[in-house]
From TrEMBL:
The keyword Nucleotide-binding does not apply. Residues 505-640 form the N-terminal Ras-GEF domain. Residues 227-302 form the DEP domain. This is Rap guanine nucleotide exchange factor 4. GO terms for biological process: Ras protein signal transduction. Residues 74-128, 367-468 form the Cyclic nucleotide-binding domain. Residues 788-1026 form the Ras-GEF domain. It comes from Elysia crispata (lettuce slug). Keywords: Guanine-nucleotide releasing factor. GO terms for molecular function: DNA ligase activity; guanyl-nucleotide exchange factor activity. GO terms for cellular component: plasma membrane.
């Protein structure tokens, strides 16, 4: 009985254990189907217990098994399921628990499978390619029902970092796999020797899959070449080897230049081909070179493994229709593709031209604006390109060692911190990773790709530290009383001495006190014996920007001090020569200043007084220093010219520029298109038209520079208002903007149809726009039909040129730096040309939505597109941008029936305009076009002001007690651009009869527009009602 009971008891315990194990085995992986964060401790322990009993995991350390239960996922697959595709980038690592998988490899990635290489069974792992960031070189397919554990890159990398030694057992040694053939062993050898970063190889693609547009472009080009130029794509022999269906690089460039006239140089054509190659649809036959304009063999991917099909007649017809669009697409992509070729070269392989191209690109990157030009130039020689194809790729983890600094060139990344998740998203031109390099500290966050196909510029730690060391080594600091007063950068340059070269040095000013920089200028730039020591454009930059940090009165006082500084040191001939040299340097500085800023010498009281005083001093010194006689004559000519030039009173007798606001703005001396116009000056009188709540108005005649308080006082007395009256702008949409008492030049800050109103503060809500602010309600289409489009463009350009040439460079500084730097700053002429831009843009929109007849509207749309083309041909990019942006306004762009009736040629023309307007890469397309133009040019003024504002806000003006002159260099560059654009006169003649030309001129200078978005939208829907 006891024995039986014992036996029965043991049998029962065994049955219970087997029952429990059966339940356990059935549910052990339930937790592995969840996200790691959602798993309970029981589920993790259950999975861990099961894995320790599985033979596939017996080689793993028990601690590692526990971690796998925490991070791994479970999957059960049927037979013939593709787990890994050759050519795809790795995202997961796999462990085989049961079943088997076949490994294949194919030379043609388009084939589903090649010859079988080996079989993976229980305990094998694969997917180690996630650590190399290279495409898979094999495909893996299940042979029968298979159980797998898998981990993504982030979790696998985390385990590797925590358990590096134990993880060695988790990576299968592929050479020891059963049934491994010789081809697989060769594959493994190539894998071991392959670099982990294909971004450095310009011959390799930068993305996993080509974009649809580039794939189509490759198809179109191959179809055209195979169908009409079959001699270009053929089998070729080289060094006893035959290359199937390939073409020669230089021959392809020749064909592009012959076929597409808009590409005017071989470098541009080569860049178009590189755009195909870098996306993998076009390859070098040995995959060793990027696209080069040389006798090298290339082929289309379609012909890579086996020759692709010949095109049909239908294919040729379709390809011919799309050829122009394809060329335009590739022409747009060419500059970036060519730049990436340079960035993928090793630093030692880059030429001086390569470095200069990269440097010009770095100047446009916001995150680098705070760096000196020298540092940017050094970065241009070492900065590298890096690309990642898949969203979720981890660039580095929090706590990693800092090895590189990154700048986002394309795409975006997520910034994550342990315990907080994603704290921000960084986009194009943002940078990250520099702090860890500067502080030599671990990474403070994890960076993960937020989207596919992200591109980066990368500076590695060693290069970063070397540049900082070199810059400091080439920096010369001059101190006075223990403080830096001048910082120079030493720049070596080669000198040829009888056939042998040696290095000498020029010095560029990086920072300094105003007084010390002036002293350095007088001692070097103004002295012919020392002029060679100065590098760059320091003299011009100083004169163009001195008003920011060294106002006229202080500069004149400092020069006067320098002129008289050594008057007592005349004991010896050397002393006399030194004093004469010092005086000549001051005079030469003044003459150079006069040549550069002629207008200032007639409009600035401190300069006028200084010139008068200096001229008298030089006249007195001519007796002791006869060498000053010629200088005195030059100064006397300036003095007489200043006296004879028109002063403020004389200018006021001529018509000044004012925005043409119908019923609102008038010159103090009346209208008249025949009068010669001159720039607006702050002392010019102006008739301010100020409205009341009942739409009655009063006119107040005051100087342009009058404050709001002066206008209020003048208007309230006439309108019998109390002392609590305030001045405000009422816009056409009813919005009110209240001005402060100290505000000045308010007339130039009004919107297109804005008006000045005055009312007690408590009655501001009662103010409404006057009827005329709504703008016109009838189109001028009947008049426009009779006007020549070319003549319209000519008259627009003539008026814009008058406005552009009337803008003093000082007004641009006033606008950008504001009243904090220039308390009495005046920018009315600049405001006028910016106002004109908005006026032209809304004129286009207004005319389009006021034409209700569809055929007439299509005719007007064609006329405006031609008008934009004419303005572009006349180098008037200010008007070109305004017109094109007007046509892109929502109220116009939504008129689908109108746009559909345009010819394909006209649509293509407008599409090219939009490409030029594309703001990507800091308006790179526009900047490249403008850089090739010759003056006269009317540039896109809002972008110039944006550039200067960008430099001002991104860089400090002062470092300690010194001026950051690197910033002044960049500001001066924009001013030089303006100076270059108007360095030649505009010579345009009207082709119309005088009467017709005068009518068009009057029309262009008195445009009436609607600027109320609600009214424009309603009129647009009236033209073409919303569908549905």
């Amino acid at each position: 009985m006891s024995a039986r009971s014992s036996s029965t008891s043991k049998s029962g315990k065994t049955d219970n254990k087997q029952h429990k194990m059966k339940i356990l085995n059935a549910s052990w992986y339930s937790g592995l189907l969840k996200r790691p964060l959602d798993r309970t401790s029981e589920e993790i322990e259950r999975a861990s217990a099961h894995l320790r009993d599985v033979s596939a995991a017996e080689k793993f350390h028990h601690c590692l098994v526990q971690q796998m239960a925490l991070y791994a996922r479970y999957d059960r697959l049927d037979e013939n399921v593709l787990v890994i595709r050759q050519g795809d980038y790795g995202v997961n690592w796999y462990l085989v628990l049961s079943g088997s998988l076949a490994v294949y490899s194919s030379e043609n990635l388009r084939l589903k499978a090649g010859p079988k290489l080996c079989t993976l069974t229980s305990g094998a792992s694969f997917g180690e390619g996630i650590f190399t960031r290279n495409p898979h070189q094999i495909s893996v397919v299940t042979v029968d029902k298979t159980e797998l554990l898998w981990m993504d890159y982030k979790d696998m990398k985390l385990l590797w970092e925590r358990h590096r030694e134990m993880m060695d057992a988790a990576i299968t040694s592929l050479e020891n796999l059963p049934n491994l053939n010789d081809e697989m062993k060769k594959l493994l050898v190539s894998k071991d020797t392959k670099t982990w970063d294909d971004s450095l190889n310009p011959a390799s693609p930068i993305c996993a899959e080509p974009s649809g547009n580039i794939s189509h472009a490759a198809w179109v080009l191959r179809t055209i070449l195979m169908g009409h130029h079959g001699h270009m794509i053929r089998d070729r022999k080289y060094h006893l080897r035959t290359y199937k269906r390939c073409l020669v690089g230089c021959e392809l460039v020749d064909w592009i230049l012959d076929t597409f006239p808009k590409v005017d140089n071989r470098e541009h054509a080569a860049g178009m081909c590189q755009a195909l190659l870098e996306e993998g649809v076009f390859v070098h036959v040995c995959k060793q070179h990027p696209f080069l304009d040389q006798y090298l063999f290339y082929r289309f991917l379609e012909d890579e493994a086996t020759p692709g099909p010949l095109p049909t007649e239908a294919d040729l017809e379709r390809a011919q229709e799309d050829l122009f669009d394809v060329f335009s697409l590739l022409a747009q992509a060419s500059p970036d593709a060519a730049l990436r070729v340079i960035l993928r070269k090793l630093p030692d392989d880059r030429t001086s031209e390569d470095v200069e191209i990269v440097y010009e690109e770095l100047l446009q990157i916001k995150s680098l604006q705070h760096l000196s030009c020298t540092v940017k130039r050094e970065l241009a020689s070492v900065i590298m390109f890096e690309a990642h194809s898949h969203s979720g790729t981890v660039l580095f983890n929090q706590g990693d060692e800092g090895r590189s600094w990154y700048i986002v060139a394309k795409g975006s990344v997520n910034v994550s911190i342990h315990g907080k998740g994603v704290v921000c998203v960084l986009g194009e031109a943002d940078d990250f990773g520099k702090l860890a390099l500067v502080n030599d500290a671990p990474r403070a966050a994890t960076i993960t790709l937020a989207e596919d196909n992200c591109h980066f510029l990368r500076v590695d730690k060693d290069d970063f530290n070397r540049i900082l060391r070199d810059v400091e080594a080439n920096t010369v600091r001059l101190k006075e009383h223990g403080q830096d007063v001048l910082i120079l950068e030493k720049i070596p340059f080669p000198v040829d001495s009888n056939g042998s070269f040696h290095s000498e040095y020029k010095y560029s000013v990086m920072a300094g006190t105003p007084e010390k920089m002036l002293e350095y200028l007088l001692e070097t730039a103004m002295d012919p014996k020392k002029e060679h020591q100065m590098a760059g454009t320091f003299l011009d930059d100083f004169l163009l920007t001195h008003s920011i940090f060294f106002p006229d009165e202080k500069l004149c006082a400092a020069m006067s001090k320098h002129y008289h500084a050594s008057a007592d040191s005349t004991d010896t001939q050397d002393d006399c020569d030194f004093v004469l040299s010092q005086k000549k340097c001051v005079i030469q500085f003044v003459l150079t200043w006069y040549d550069l800023e002629l207008d200032k010498f007639s409009g600035s009281l401190p300069i006028s007084q200084f010139i008068e005083s200096l001229t008298k001093s030089v006249a007195q010194d001519c007796l002791a220093y006869p060498g000053l006689i010629g200088d005195h004559e030059a100064l006397l000519a300036i003095y007489k010219d200043r006296k004879s030039s028109a002063g403020p009173n004389k200018v006021s007798k001529m018509k000044s520029f004012f925005p043409s606001r119908r019923g609102h703005t008038k010159s103090s001396l009346g209208e008249g298109d025949g009068e010669k116009k001159v720039p607006v000056r702050s002392g010019d009188e102006y008739i301010f038209k100020v409205y009341c709540a009942d739409h009655t108005y009063s006119s107040v005649r005051l100087p342009m520079a009058s404050s709001v308080r002066d206008i209020v006082v003048g208007a309230r007395d006439k309108l019998c208002l109390g002392t609590d009256a305030v001045l405000c702008e009422v816009k056409s949409n009813g919005e009110r903007v209240v001005f402060k008492d100290q505000d000045r030049f308010v007339i130039m800050s009004l919107s297109l149809n804005g008006r000045l109103f005055i009312a007690p503060r408590e009655h501001l809500d009662a103010l409404t726009p006057v009827p005329e602010q709504e703008g016109p309600n009838i189109s001028t289409m009947p008049a426009l039909e009779l006007m020549s489009t070319r003549e319209l463009a000519v008259q627009i350009t003539l008026f814009d040129w008058e406005l552009f040439t009337a803008v003093p460079e000082q007004e641009m500084l006033n606008k950008v730096f504001g009243t904090q730097v220039f308390p009495s700053g005046f920018s009315a002429n600049l405001d006028h040309i910016l106002f004109r831009f908005d006026q032209l843009q809304y004129w286009i929109v207004t005319e389009m939505v006021l034409v209700l007849n569809l055929s007439k509207r299509v005719q007007l749309l064609r006329k405006f597109i031609k008008l934009a083309q004419h303005c572009k041909d006349l180098n008037n990019y200010h008007a070109f941008f305004a017109i094109t942006m007007g046509l892109g306004h929502l109220a116009v762009s939504r008129l689908s029936q109108t746009w559909e009736k345009l010819t394909s040629k006209m649509k293509k023309t407008f599409s090219d305009f939009e490409i030029l307007l594309e703001p990507a890469r800091n308006h790179r397309a526009y900047r490249q076009v403008v850089s090739t133009l010759t003056p006269p040019v009317i540039p896109y003024m809002p972008l110039l002001i944006k550039d200067m504002t960008f430099v001002n806000e991104g860089n400090k003006t002062h470092y300690d007690n010194m001026i950051n002159f690197e910033k002044m260099h960049m500001i001066a560059q924009s001013l030089r651009t303006v100076r270059f654009c108007r360095s030649e006169p505009l010579e345009l003649e009207s082709a119309e009869a005088p009467k017709t030309g005068s009518d068009i001129r009057s029309y262009i200078r008195n445009l009436h527009v609607i600027d109320n978005q609600r009214i424009l939208t309603n009129l647009s829907h009236k033209c073409e009602p919303r569908k549905g």
